[in-house]
Structure formats: structure tokens, C-alpha cells
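ok trying again, last paste got cut off:
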Amino acid sequence: MKIFSFIILVLCMNSISYANDWKAVNQAIVEQHIQPRYKILSAQIAALNEKTQSFCQKPNPKNLNTLKNTFNEAMDSWVAVQHLRHGPIELFERYHRIQFWPDKHGVSQRQINTFLAKKDSEILKLENFQNSSVAIQGLSTFEYLLYPKNAKDVISSQYRCQMMQAIAQNIHQISNEVTEEWQDEKKQFKFFFDANAKNFGLTDGKVDYANQIETATVFYLEMHTQIQSIIDQKILDPLGENNKPKMKKSESWRSDRSLQNIETSLKALEDLYTVGFAQKTDSKLNAEILASFQNVYKSLQPLKPSFNDAVTNPKERQDFDNLISSLRDLQRLVFSPLSQALEIPIGFNSLDGD
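nice, full thing came through this time. structure:
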């Protein structure tokens, strides 16, 4: 009986030790990866809100150029957290209210055109705008309004400016809410699984292995899902089939920053891996994964500076094939060796069914 009790005690201690290992990984990801990035997002969206108000008060080419620069900085900060699909961003359709993309059926453009035709100022009041379609509320619509075919439309259209102000104010509030909730330990993870779980072991108290591994699994799947999104949605969809590119399916094509989005997203994934999961992999696998990221960055270079030009140029097809191949190599490392090293099972991802 004493031997049996000792075995049980050892097993429990090992389980707690293993849970604590995952607790360290989860805390590192939250404190070193997620929180700083959402703080940057909040600051950049605040700047976008401010510059939008300034431009609409004095719509001129100089202020327009300043607004475009601020928009691009805001997009950088959003793409840097775009892989984080769970947590507070899940609530109230926040994720899609910040960016409704991909828009497979052109819902946004139809609704934008309706807004511009009706010129209803009442719907642009914050409390009303927040209850409008998610397809109209975020950065994709802001880009549409900021980069029209005729640049003079941005300066001359008062209602277009009012729409941009409504969007900037709306996503400013959303980004602030999400950032604040990620700072609150009691709110950080209650949206992941069971709201009654004890803070998923991230605060003082009993360490729960199941919650720790489940939380880490979510973070891992964020990385896996985003790589799939980059391949399928950000590259293959715009490339089209049978040498018939569909450039307008690319992300941020109006501002021609599609390649920048891809690179920014990959750097965010590399940071997520380095901050969190690298500490639970051996040196050989770690070196392979980091080398694979570098290979993807190298494959991006021949396609620069313009994704729009590259995707419509048949001569660039081999460069795209090389990029896709390097991404699939990275995906294979994450899908199999890394998941095995972490003892994390692969399930469905957030893109399934899209």
C-alpha cells in the first residue's frame, strides 16, 4: 500500500511539474508576445483615429499622405496580431469588425456603395455604426475609402470622410477593449474554454494540467492556422487557376501592401514560436524551424516590391511556386515534428469550413 501511494504521489508530482512547464510557456506567450502586440495595435489605431479627424478637418494632399502612412502603420499592427483568433477578440465579432477579409462574395463593396449613395449621417453615429454589418466596420472598408480609383474623391467627398471617421472611432474602441482585457488575468482566458475554470492555472492557486495544455494547444493552432491562411488565402486565391490571376482577391490590394502583410504575419509567427514553443524543442528541431522561416523570407524577396504586379506577371509564377514550396516546408515542420515534440495533437483549425 505504501509503495502504491508513493507511485501515485510521484505521478501527481510529475503531472504538476509538466503542467508548470506549460504554465511558463503560456505566461511567456501572453506577457512577451500577446500583450505587447495588442498595446501597439491600440496605440496605432488611436493614431489612425486622430489623423483621420485631422484630415477630415483639413482635407488636402499633405494630410492625405500623412493619413495613408498612419493607415499603413495601423495595418502593420493589426497583421501582427491577426493570427490571434481566440481570447477577447472572439467576443462581439471583434475580429471581423476590425477586418472583414477575405470577402468572398463582395459583401463589403456592395454595402459601401449603398452607404455612399444614401449618405445617411445618422447611421455613422458610433452607437448605430457598431450595430451595422461587420462587413462595413473595419480596416478593409477604411482602405477602400482611402484608396479610390480617383484620389481626389477622398479629398472632395465629405461623406467618405465621415465614414472613415466612424470606422476609426469604432476600431479604436474595439482595440482598446481587447488590449485592456488581455491585461486582466481574470479575463485573459475565460473565453477560451470553460469560463468557470480557475484562470487556467495562470494565476496563483492550483495548477491544472488539462487547462494548461489546452491553452498551449490553442496558441499552437493559431500558428498552424495562420500559415495555412497565408498559403491559401493570401497567395493561392489571388494567383487563381489556369494562369488566370485574381489580383483583387489579395489582401490589401488597393494599398498594394499584400507582400508586406505576408512578411509581417510570418515575423509574428516566428516571434510566437521563439517566445513560447522554442523552449520545449531540442536544438536540432529549433534550428530547422528558424532556418525554415529564413528560407520563406528569402523566397519573398524576388516578388517585391509589388504583389499586384507580381501576381499578374506570368514570369513571376516560378517565384510564387518557390514561395509556396518554402511555406509548405515550414508548415510540415510545424504540423509534424513540432506537434510531436510538444505532444500536441492536431485538430481542426479556424479556417475549416471557410
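cool. Confidence is low (pLDDT under 50) at residues 1-18, 190-207. The radius of gyration is 22 Å.
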